[in-house]
Amino acid sequence: MTLDSLLIANRGEIARRVIRTARAMGTRCVGVYVDADANEPYVAECDEAWRLATGYLDVDALLEVARRAGARAVHPGYGFLSENATFAQAVLDAGLVWVGPTPAVIAAMGDKIAAKELAREAGLPLLASSQDPEDAEEVGYPLLIKAAAGGGGKGMRVVTSADELPEALAAARREADHAFGDDRVFLEHYVAASRHVEIQILGDRHGTLVHLGERECSIQRRHQKLVEETPSPIVSDELRTAMGDAALALARRLGYESTGTVEFLVDDATHAFYFLEVNTRLQVEHPVTEEVFGVDLVREQLRVAAGEPLSTAVRDARARGHAIEVRLCAEDAAAGFLPATGTLSAFEIPAYPAVRWESGVARGSAVGLSFDPLLAKVIAHAPTREEAALTLARALEGLHVGGVTTNRDVLAATLRHDAFRRGDTTTAFLERHRPARELVLVDDELVGTLIVGAVWLEREHRASAAVLADAPSGWRNARLPPQTTTLVYRGAPHEVRYRVGRDGTYEVGDGSRARVLDVTATHLDVEIDGRRMRTRVTHVGDDLFVQVPRGTAHLTIAPRFAVPGREVTEGGLDAPMPGVILDVRVTPGQRVARGESLVVLEAMKMEHVIVAPHDGVIRDVLVAAGQQVERGVALLALESDGPSPSEEES
Hints:
Rossmann fold, Dna Ligase, domain 1
């Protein structure tokens, strides 16, 4: 059977990834989009794309698009409906080819509780667990509450004592119900010093079943992966064989077809491993396996769906080198990895070093809270782990990005961290080692960036001058006082005073000299005190994004005259992101203690608890349950009950 046409029932970078392989196989690609995605890159890359008025989860609408477009098969990507057995069956019932495991396998593995029982029957080792909260002591603290119907960190809570259990259970159930339409949860023993290691499996309809080694995906925030690599730095040949055999034993019991992943938790101290779940789809992190084993997993998915056997390339695959992937996300790492929104004013992927970028966005893309915050996956493959890490860090630092806060800086800092480079990559990595969460320019680095910003603006002003536009930059018929530009960096204003000489050289501040060697619409080639650099600059509104060796610096042009701003509530606690208020737990006049939960905000189908930063009294409550709020909106006014921690230390 030939899959000559394919409906891709997904969006963003995974849609682009599937398009790339399908087109190379001669397959016509049909895409779908909602209004918010109408201008995104994947839509233009499809052979044809159809608007969905009701969203990506509307099964009837997707099948109608397939019918009208004449698509022969459906690829679900990941997320959305990719592990929905009902959707898979509906595709088959419509006479279409489903690219993925059978609906029966998806249903069996989609229920995490049932999956554990099947794994037990197949002889896989399991962590202590229970569906009954009364068994919490028997399961053993610390424990993890997990959603029965899904993953991705939703409906998941770590509980360290019985006192925390009731509230954590209630929150996990609400979150699971909202995310998966199923509020069932279960308790599982939590191993704090652990690693997430998964085995990539592939099967066809002819009885062939193989695994392509392991991926370690331990570095996470909010139980969601940030860094993935293969091979794992702690998996020995013996452990790899044991986990691979266990994964294949379960896959054989299921009669597994297509790609999939069997996830294990590995105790960092003992290297004992325990079954967690099976993901019956392509994983976000699949590129690291492709790079190391030299295979195309999407191609294998399409071949298996068409009834063909797994390729020789897969059956004979051998590992070579090391690959690492990071997830570039729209989120504020410094603020606890909260989702970020905005418009990508700048997004330019560096030409060097040569790494693999899988992105679903471009400059001008709007980033909201409706979808996962993933902007791009970045993958480096090299002969050694050290080389892969350094190459990937350099590529991230070379990305020119602005307009939306991203986690780029903490990813680069993680890859360069000594603990990462020696393989100390447990699930507690971010909390234990605390790599820098944002770029902070200091000393000469900051001075040079401010000079670049001031010179760029001066050049722009000269180019747009209404009179004397042909006069050399800085031309005067008399010596006048220096020109002044005030640029704000990290909330602090910096005055840059400069005078332009007749030869075009800039005399800056107390003696620095800058000479422009070339300027284009996007780059400034400048020599500052003997140091030459070619820097990318993006100017949008009052924002300047200046590329520096370690990333992108964000400067704001200070207004020449003060303008009215929004009223600030004294002692106010602001919303850290746009969202919906789920619960307000305090009333005016109530005394609260530091760390006490005050407001519950929902964003991205996950709950975020706003806690009291210090002891005090609630002076005013400014929001109510059910209210939609934007980032920065005041939620409460909290009157301090005494000196702040910083005042006490001074």
